Write a sequence for this structure.
DNA sequence: GAGGGGTTTGGGAGCGCTCCCAAATGGTGG
DNA sequence: CCACCATTTGGGAGCGCTCCCAAACCCCTC
């Protein structure tokens, strides 16, 4: 504000100062061949002296690539993004993107207006690629990304479709392990609090539970449905207890609901893990803080982000990566 | 992938189809005056028929504005972003930005490399403005934003400096209210678990506590220092109890530490709120889930985001907004 | 019917970069 | 010493848009 609004120097000015042509300067900038060592040095000096920084937008226009990718959170309301899950995905992704010198745009694409903006962003080639998460069944965003010709990597699979490129977490396997763990602890009347059935995560974790039960020769208990929130977990656990009073273990499809279950069990006078063992899923902070600390299935959230980014960078570079399912790991604590 | 790689139509093509000049088409696009109604209609029809979308990058180059702003999280490690706080700021900000038709870039500017990239982004005019958060004392990022000529809005104030434009939360007032609430509950031996003193938030909340004590004619108890984490809260509470066994209330500078305090108190056999009342700060999920649910100071996180965005949009438009301190609100639950 | 005001209109010159291509340069072999 | 090939070099034409400006146009008024 104090100084004159001095313009940023342009490549022409660099070239002039170095006594070479703009083309030569451009070659040095992109360290392309066909520049004599002396000229190269001269240009480098000029760049340093003028404190030159290439104008990204101009470069983007000329090369037809933007140097940025978008992370799109579909969901039904922008507030879905408040889930700490996404923040950790971003931490993972941004490290990889930084390596590839790509910037990250964040689009909370809930609602018509933001979807229209996303559509424009894609059509106008505002980004070189997209990472897409929290897509629901028949989400209108699916049409948008189908029409675009920039590469799209999904995080998780939307229910009812198998995108060409995705990174997902082994929800089925994780849920199966969690249930098997309960069985291995000597429990046999294992119930489950499942997630909303219109989410792929909800479905997959429920399936893992059923698989484990059937494999063990037990009859799956009808699931009580939660909404991935703690209060939802309280309500579901209460209902489950009423329906199956003899329950000796519960697999909850995420930690929030497991924490709710803990609270409901305490309210009902059942000891954990004495009377009822509880396993959650996610291994968020709440699992460690819960009382008793929750045994849970840790999913590699940050790795999900970094792998998505890696895959996208590969696609942009013209490679043909293959989709990925990341393993989960059971973390045993005192709730079992 | 199935279709030919048909190029997006350009404005020239629109103009040609509408039988007008490129200039006229451009005017219609930006609905500028000096276009006859018929031509306007013709252009609009051509746009619709060709499914034309203006090329953002070209426009950016011509107008010298990018149509995007950056949210920069300074911090010392990228993982600071995993704090759910930022996610809610983003939810607030992105709604306002969407209204202003600005895109959001996210920069986790910890470490030299990412700071260099940020510097380039600013110098190369990759964004029209910046929202800046989690800046530490003497953070190198301060120099970067001082040198840039795009507007910068701070979220919170970095310790030791008063930025020209900021949105902050009334941490002092909130902490004072929290402490006064404890006093109003009939407590008098009120201790505090404070945050790291090199954060503005830590300092401000500690100050609010001291103000309330002094105003009430009481001697502030020397604070026990935590690090804003739950385990940190456990340790601090244990230390505090040892030092001040007669304590009957604690103000913790955030909910995580308050939850830790709860756990430590339970471990020490003190009833909450019977023996010791506890107040936290933030009103995150954990406050509601804690046992007993925490009385806490709610800060308007989403509003922080939206107000930052609003201020930035104003600055970009050439206005001269004034900085803002958002009020907090005490939420009474069962820990007091 | 010529002169004057205002409003359209379209050509052209950018914005700052990349990249193609033709010309210049330099080193080699016959 | 010249022809010939491989490099290096710089001019110029984009990329797709905005915006200035001069020319064209329209409608009055005198």
């Amino acid at each position: 504000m104090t100084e004159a609004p001095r313009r940023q120097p342009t490549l022409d000015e660099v070239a002039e100062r170095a006594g070479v042509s703009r083309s030569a300067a451009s070659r040095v900038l992109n360290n392309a061949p066909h520049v004599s060592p002396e000229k190269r040095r001269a240009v480098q000096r000029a760049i340093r002296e003028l404190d030159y920084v290439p104008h990204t937008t101009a470069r983007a226009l000329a090369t037809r690539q933007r140097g940025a990718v978008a992370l799109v959170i579909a969901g039904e309301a922008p507030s879905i993004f408040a889930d700490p899950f996404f923040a950790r995905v971003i931490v993972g992704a941004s490290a990889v993107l930084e390596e590839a010198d790509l910037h990250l745009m964040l689009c909370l694409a809930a609602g018509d207006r933001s979807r229209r903006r996303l559509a424009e962003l894609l059509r106008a080639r505002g980004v070189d690629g997209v990472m897409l998460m929290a897509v629901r069944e028949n989400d209108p965003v699916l049409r948008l990304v189908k029409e675009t010709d920039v590469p799209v990597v999904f995080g998780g699979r939307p229910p009812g479709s198998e995108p060409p490129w995705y990174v997902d977490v082994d929800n089925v396997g994780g849920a199966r392990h969690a249930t098997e763990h309960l069985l291995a602890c000597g429990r046999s009347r294992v119930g489950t609090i499942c997630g909303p059935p219109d989410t792929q995560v909800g479905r997959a974790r429920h399936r893992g539970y059923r698989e484990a039960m059937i494999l063990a020769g037990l009859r799956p208990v009808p699931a009580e449905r939660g909404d991935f929130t703690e209060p939802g977990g309280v309500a579901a656990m209460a209902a489950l207890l009423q329906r199956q009073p003899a329950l000796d273990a519960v697999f909850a499809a995420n930690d929030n609901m497991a924490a709710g279950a803990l609270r409901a069990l305490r309210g009902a006078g059942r000891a954990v893990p004495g009377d009822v063992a509880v396993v959650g899923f996610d291994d968020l902070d709440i699992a460690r803080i819960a009382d008793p600390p929750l045994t849970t299935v840790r999913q590699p959230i940050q790795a999900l982000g970094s792998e998505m980014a890696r895959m996208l960078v590969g696609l942009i570079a013209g490679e043909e990566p293959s989709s990925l399912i990341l393993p989960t790991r059971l973390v045993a604590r005192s709730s079992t």
Q: What stands out?
A: Residues 15, 20-24, 27, 33-36, 39, 58, 60-64 of chain A lie near DNA strand D (CB under 10 Å from a C1').
